[in-house]
UniProtKB/TrEMBL annotation:
Domain of life: Bacteria
Domain Transcription elongation factor GreA/GreB N-terminal, chain residue ranges per copy: 4-74
Annotated protein name in UniProt: Transcription elongation factor GreA
Occurrences of domain Transcription elongation factor GreA/GreB C-terminal (ranges): 82-156
NCBIfam families: greA, PRK00226.1-2, PRK00226.1-4, PRK00226.1-5
Length: 157
């Protein structure tokens, strides 16, 4: 059984999503199904079939989240003492070609949000940074070709 790395805040977000899916969303879908049944013949009732499909997707998502939480390896970045980039690190990078500065935190797959500067542990940029130290250059295989980023700072906050 493979462990799923995630931060403490990522695990809490998954728990909140799970509570919503099991509670409010599940009840809303059941109400939609009941209302669609009231329209009569189920064999040609598009609303009923759409609601049943939504119910299946909701239950599938619940199962997926429960599985991830059961296999969770929760990591609190502030407790990490490392010189190298590892899961949970917040890394300040300089694009070698453009001089542009970017800051990313390496998080679990379900936590990734590029707009908030959070990249998945499985992303090309995270894979390129893992194991690197201050001053090292991370070479990222991007769709537009190779990009090089110099590591300016590594924090565990």
């Amino acid at each position: 059984m493979e462990r799923v790395p995630m931060t403490k805040s990522g695990a809490e977000t998954l728990r909140q999503t799970l509570a919503y899916l099991k509670g409010e969303n599940r009840h809303r879908i059941v109400a939609t199904i009941e209302a669609a049944r009231a329209h009569g013949d189920l064999s040609e009732n598009a609303e009923y079939h759409a609601a049943k499909e939504e119910q299946g997707l909701n239950e599938s998502r619940i199962t997926d989240i429960e599985d991830k939480l059961a296999r969770a390896h929760i990591i609190e970045p502030s407790t990490i003492k490392a010189e190298k980039v590892v899961f949970g690190a917040t890394v300040e990078l300089i694009d070698v070609n453009t001089g542009t500065e970017v800051v990313y935190q390496i998080v679990g797959v379900d936590e990734a949000d590029i707009e908030k500067g959070k990249v998945s542990i499985t992303s090309p940029i995270a894979r390129a940074m893992i194991g690197k130290e201050l001053g090292d250059v991370a070479v990222v295989q991007a769709p537009g070709g190779e990009r090089e980023f110099e590591i300016q700072a590594i924090d565990y906050i």
